[in-house]
Design a protein that fits this description.
Helix content is 65%, strand content 5%. The protein has 175 residues and is mainly alpha-helical. The chain has a single domain (4-174), classed as Up-down Bundle (Four Helix Bundle (Hemerythrin (Met), subunit A)). It has a two-stranded antiparallel ribbon with strand order 1-2. The chain starts with 7 loop residues before the first helix and ends with a helix.
């Protein structure tokens, strides 16, 4: 059990990633307050577990994992989140690449950011499910690198928007 793909921190990350994906695949009947509550707890845990992952370089570029999430799957998840978030889906984001060329914040959506993270984590989780150790190792390497360069920032940005939506005065009056 010395292999990196079976280390405790990695297996804990797998568990959180699977929980995240399962939640977003089962949004039917969920209320906005429930989604915000769970995401306000799950995203920081996911972020923490990601920072604890070991970083390994891909030994063979041919090992790059499969994209298991189809555009249709992605659109369903994004659409379900957008439907639940409704008028609270949009937020202004200053931590995006396009901001370098703009003097105003860029419009982002909670649904797209959560779906982007979903796509990354689902591809990772499904690679682990194959039990092919080379594919698992490649997936571990890719998810860590992509956390550092892409989806980690999205997780941090969208958490701010989720916090705002969850603790907004109007939302608190509904509780």
């Amino acid at each position: 059990m010395d292999k990196p793909i079976y280390q405790r921190d990695v297996l804990e990350f797998v568990t959180v990633a699977v929980q995240y994906c399962a939640l977003l695949e089962d949004l039917e009947g969920k209320e906005r307050t429930e989604l915000l509550d769970v995401m306000s707890k799950l995203l920081p845990l996911l972020y923490l577990k990601s920072t604890l992952l070991p970083r390994y370089e891909l030994l063979n570029e041919d090992e790059v994992g499969n994209d298991y999430v189809t555009e249709e799957n992605y659109d369903i998840v994004r659409g379900n989140i957008a439907s639940i978030m409704a008028d609270r889906d949009d937020y202004l984001d200053v931590f995006v690449e396009d901001m370098k060329y703009s003097d105003t914040p860029i419009l982002a959506t909670i649904s797209e950011n959560l779906a982007d993270i979903y796509q990354e984590l689902k591809n990772f989780a499904l690679a682990y499910r194959t039990e092919d150790e080379d594919q698992m190792m490649a997936a571990l390497s890719i998810v860590k690198i992509n956390f550092e360069t892409e989806w980690g920032q999205k997780a941090a940005n969208v958490l701010r928007a989720i916090h705002e939506a969850k603790y907004d005065e109007d939302n608190l009056r509904e509780i």
